[in-house]
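Provenance and format

Records in this collection were gathered into a single text stream. Each protein contributes a sequence line and a token line. The two records reproduced below are adjacent in the stream.
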Amino acid sequence: MKLSKFNRYVVLGLAISYVGIAPVSSAYAGQLLSKNTQQLVEHPNLVNTFEDVMAMREAIKVSGRFQTEFLNKQARLDKAIEQPLNVPYPKDAGGGYTHEVHKNNYRLMYDAGILYQITQDPKYANYVKDVLFEYAKLYPTLSLHPEVKSSNPGQLFWQGLNEAVWLVHTIQAYDAVLPHLSESERETIEKGVLEPVALFLSEESPQTFNKVHNHGTWATCAVGMTGYVLDKPEWVEKALYGLDKSGTGGFMRQLDELFSPNGYYNEGPYYQRYALMPFVTFAKAIENNQPERKIFEYRDQVLLKAINTTAQLSYNGLFFPINDAIKDKGIDTIELVHGIAIAYGITGETGLLDIAKQQGRVILTGDGLQVAKALDKGQETDYQFKTQAFGDGASGNEGAFVVLRSDSSKKASVVTFKATSQGLGHGHFDKMGLSFYDNGAEILTDYGAARFLNVVAKFGGRYLPENDSYAQQTVAHNTLVVDETSHFDGITEVGNQHHPKLELFANDKQVKLASASIDTAYQGVGLTRTTALVAVPEENIDWVIDIFAAQSKTQHQYDLPFHYSGHFIEANFDYQAHAESLNALGTKSGYQHLWLTAQAQPSDEQQIRKITWLNDNGRFYSLNAVNSPNLEVLFTRAGANDPNFNLREDKAFILRAKGQTDYQFVSLLEAHGEYNPSKEYTLKSKSSIKSLSYEQQGAVHMVYVERDDNSQFVIAYHNQSGQSQSFVVDGHTYALNQTVKLFKLAKK
């Protein structure tokens, strides 16, 4: 039977006072009398429960993943706690010495708390106590951190965010060792540091605590969990519903507004995995203490959906790097390790075990033990990655992040189509941006964030100035730029008010397609993009069809960049390389950071402009673009006006059309061939696309493709729901009885 602090008490009638010395028991010394209810309460009572602890004590006796993790953790911790205590006065920003010491301290305390519960060895509880005594001396002497650089300042850390993360981990450590402590020791720790930190994060930081943002999530989690441990129900209510408990702020409002109904997080995958930790950790504490709230059932199980969506928003182990994302973050991140364990503990879905196996680690919690046992028994099944439109916004109607997958495997071809809302302050100005992944690699790339996380020499580990001047700008992404100006003039407050409309989404066996539009990114210009992932019959290749249309009554310059990863091979047109000197492509909106390395002037000599490159994954890729007499091609490389070499030297092809009103870019990205330098062979390095065109017949849109072997294909689609359509090619009528379909025509 689970015991909890608020609503599930067991009254034993023992004369044990919460303000007295904790009893000692060889089996378990985790019951203390509540000051408020005079009933016995168990500790730990957050993520782990007494039942979890008892199961873990047995599990470490048995060979397996859990025992291995325990022994590794114990060996590392035993070595670490032999070192002198180090609780320095805070002075460094993120990545600096004192910052990293305080981070390490909360991690060590967290681990020591868990090991105390499992082993019952008092040295671990004493370590947590001794460290917290030092913090109880230090914290009352602090004012705002000397390196405060944000609207969410901290005292122990440069950001209140880090302060909240510290408390989330520390309160779990304290919860684990609390029964070991005497009345005076608890008083010293609670009054000296735990209560002051909680009050600083809540009453003294209302602008963050009530904010619908990941900083607010961490703060409410920290304060709410502290409320459960310190027997302060009022703190729990404020954490759930805001400082005035009206529901205008707090954890529940964040659950309502930060996730869409299918679990997509407003700021994108990178921040989804970061925010996931406080969401699932606090939810687990709520479930253990107040199961009647049914927190994991809230909003049709939105938290469980969020955990699954976080895994879905990845490719070959790494998260899709939209918005302010560090591109090296993936599914093995500790936040998702906790999320997958909690989700499996609730649902028992064996596909989640596949993700856990890929993560390569288990955690020392009750849920982590369940995962470890299941993996030891080989109970995992293949996780099913899906083609899906992840609706954005609280109601799921503020655009969508669309993921088109050729199949369910982790290395299948994938197109991501970012037709989302802005993503708050971490959002980038790239409405309807496109990325492509194939054969385990990123082919059409998204820049992500310009930041060297926690590298002090690089702007203190913060976002670099180039994050604003380049990475967030529209030209740094694969979407249309009008008149060398970013969407919404690069103003976040304006961008937050607008989003694209997802016009069409189809998931056919051979063609996955999405279409979206927006008319607010530029005044007087409407943008519509349709993209499709096409599985070519009987061949192990995929095409990406892309149709980007601009509509305007006045003339503009339209630029469509394709940022790519790999080595340029060839083009089917003449171009002028700037081999001796380089100039920046422009002066603002990110253009000032692009070297113009080569360019090709308008020409009507080819029906398609063709560019081929080789990716490190050993495959060739060719961008085939329908030509027009006024289409220029620009070759660029990032790094201009970057004296500190902060930017990656990413490369791009930019299709440019000047002096146009309505204009349409039509292209096909083809994966082909193989390059194997080890075995010294090259296969199919040439693009097979002979011709490419687009037309519309009534409601039917058609992309016509002919290959060098004279095989012909038509990708046809319409958005007339529930209606059959038809079209004519070379005198033959074809019926389109579904939204989208690939037709293979007879050879000429």
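Adjacent record:
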Amino acid sequence: MSFSHLHQYQQKLAQLGQRQLLLLAGEPAWQTALIQQVTQLCQGDWVTISSNQPDALLPEQAIRLLGREFLHAVFDANEGFNTDALAMLTGTLKAGSILILCLPEIESWDRYIDNDSQRWNDAQGVLSTPNFMAWLKNITLGDEQVMVWQQSMPFQLPTLIEKAKPWALPQGKPTAEQQVILDKLLLSTSGISSVIAPRGRGKSALAGMFIEQYQGNVLVCAPAKNSTDVLSAHTSKAISFYSPDNLLALCINNEIQSDWLIIDEAASVPIAQLEALCGYFPNVLMTTTVQGYEGTGRGFMLKLGDNIPNLRTYQLQTPIRWATDCPLENWLNQLLLLDEPKYNFACQQQGDVDIHQLQGNWHNNISQLYDFYQLLTSAHYRTTPLDLRRLLDGQKQRYWSASINNKIVGAVWCIEEGGLPFELAHDVWLGIRRPRGNLVAQSLVTYGLIPDAMCLNSLRISRIAVLPQYRRQKIAATLIANIVKESHKQAIDYLSVSFGYTETLAQFWMQCGFQIVRLGVHKEASSGCYTAMAMYPLTEKGEQLLRSSLSAFALQYQQIELQTKLRLADKLIPSYSATAQDNWLMMAGFAFAHRSTLTVYESVANFLVGYEQRYPLLVAFFVDNKSVEQCVAEFSLSGKKVLTKQLREQCARLMAEKDAQLTSRYQQWLSTYSHPSCFDFV
């Protein structure tokens, strides 16, 4: 059966309720010509995701497709392989669809340069990704249900596997699974429910059917309005749609109420926001997939259950948009490890806990890759296919596991940071460079007193996860203690961690020997919490950095507390007193460079004593804490840029009034690449 029979083949696919992958491996011009022929033979939507094709959807925009349905698609991976976008696109394709995957010749895959690696790799620049490409090659070429068309070889259609039981698309009526859940929801008088399932199981359709049958008021909330297309198609009623931010604002102001709130694609909404919305409605239904590519992993439900104790959870298992055992779904699940992990959360092994540092050559140890990654997806709510890419080809990664009877029950994933040139760190301190990576180290430089955090060698704990049934047994703390012990031997100056601040997490890290040295003023999109950063010094240089970081944190804490309304426990509040040199250093960095206003609130207040009448703008902004908008209006300025320029210039004049000679020395120092400790300015 040849290319000319592709149309009949695709029609048979539709009859069987199947979807299939067509790999085009060759030059882009050859691929373009073939795609034109295929799209003429097989009519459909042909949604295209590509970084360089005109009129195509960019990979980072694929989230717009969630909650919608299409027939046929093209995924152009010639220059970059965004696995999240691939998963989102695949989940929207209905029965009879062909997904065309465009890649270079298979013989060149081991040299494939993946531009998407800039997004997930913590080192600089793009990478070749030989391990992922070997993984892709093994799964794709080993799957008899994948159509492979190489430019250098003739094309042959595979043989379709026909099922004894015929498939039929449900004609708008609920399936038996859906009906059971619908009946329970319609009888509910109060409470919070969730419907979870892999893609294509009819979660959004069920929500639409509920709206159609329910006699009261229902509001719908989702990250994007077009993600409710499927929901809307299953009800004749008008949908009252609100974005999460807008709806929460209306709720806070008591401007809206309803019998039911439906949150579609709930895993894409920060958990803190979900929890807040649930408090305003007597009945809430959340629908979502927890396969990772919406932004959270299966641990999302564990996290949600912790925050909403009486959550009722329903599951849909049977595909509706396509038939069971769909070739395309099987291929994707193998490629991105999306199948449900085979953990029995009620079962608990007994025995000693063994801690091991793993080698990380996952492509040579597939069973270990499965165990490590599936533990993360089961126990950590932020795990996505992007993490699988890091595991396979990411640089500067280290891994530890905790096992009982050779079964992994806990895992820690670390990333090497620092070791960078002082000149680069100095530019970051000045606020003129923002290189990729070095999350904690760079933040400590950006808001700190010295550039050392990016120059010293550090290890950031990126992920830590323990299976639910093994928690509160000190497994996580034992893992951390082992990492501390091993890092002492490996010339690591300090350990660091960044986490969404909660009192419980802060207490855990403090018990492990870490101290909080930074607290962000903007909430994380995923957790809805403010970002906290903590460090554990391992060398004398690490100790010096800790003292310096605590001094900087102490200078900023009062303003951080004011902006976040978050007060740390007394034992977590930095008690270090900033020196006169610390204040001068912060003032110089703001006045003569490009550092943030957050770094100088207390320093400016100290400098202003006795000079308040001469600097009303500085008093208004830094002492009275008036907003940008208020200061712009009060002082007749044209906008934020002009305000910031005025604040810097006035700080420079204030410094000069205090001590012109010292101010000149600081201004001169900023133009050199000398460490501030080299100068005894004050």
